[in-house]
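User: I'm putting together notes for a lab meeting next week and I want to include a structural view of one of the chains we've been expressing. I don't have a solved structure, so I'd like a prediction I can at least talk through. The sequence is below, exactly as it appears in our construct file.
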Amino acid sequence: MKRIFELSHDEIMLMGKKDLIETIKASEGRTVMAEVIINCPPLVYGVSNIELASAFGADMITLNAFDFYHPFIFGIDDSGLDFFRGTEAFMDIPLRIRQNMDNPEYIKKVKDIAGRFLGVNLEPVPHGNDYPEGRVLNEQNLKKTLEWGFDYIMITGNPKTGVTDGAILDGIRRASEILKDRVMIIAGKMHGAGGSNIYDPDMLRRFAAAGADAVLIPAPGTVPGMDLELAKRQIEAIHQAGSLAMTAIGTSQEGSGMGVIEQLALMSKMAGADIQHIGDAGFSGIAMPENIMALSIAVRGRRHTYRRMAYSMRK
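Assistant: Thanks for the context. Below is the predicted structure for the 315-residue chain, given as structure tokens.
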């Protein structure tokens, strides 16, 4: 099995869940995930945040704020819209959304553009929470992840959503019943999400037992009290339970200086992380692109980082 940073465009397009997990294991802690917000204008006009994350070294790209009921990705789906017309240009967006909903190849097209593994956030928000239904973890959205060809889902909570560890646990069980062996399940918290952080390794073991293929925790240095030793204990518990471990930078530190990113990356690697995530809170829905590259260089050096960057569109 090749390591994830050695995979070409076509190899990524053809891989299923089992092979994705195996290539992450083969990479020995050198897998980079970038999260991007897709419902706002991208950092650079004319190119999506997905493509930027790909170009700067991400292996896996998670779509945040993607709405299954209103699928539209700025930087891709707004191609050809003349925003110099003013608000009239936005009147064409509903038509694009309807076209996307009727297109079973929609996400596969986006994946073909990016040349990376694509995932989506689904959030088990509390009942009664005023939250877009197309972003909630429910049966319909889970089935869409299968139909549209996402490689993985991430069950977590955006800030102030009130997502609890119990809701995540229930969400993993529901997802496992529907997705089975076809879509990778990643679950956990990268910050409090309007509640409390998870410090108990037993809860992480329960996530794994419920069906999470990878369990995520905050990277050491990102939330109060999460130091290297605690991260090591949590990752050991996750590995003992048979799951991969992912550390996440989801506390706006993705907008910090490259030196901070390098420290977080090295501590996460020392703790034993299989996947390292960098969040979307830089400018306009993506980490500083240089910080994605800095994370990649810190965990796997320039040689493998430049290869990953150069393989963006090799077919």
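A couple of points you could mention at the meeting. The mean pLDDT is 93. The domain at 4-70+107-313 is CATH 3.20.20.70 (TIM Barrel).

User: Perfect, that's what I needed.
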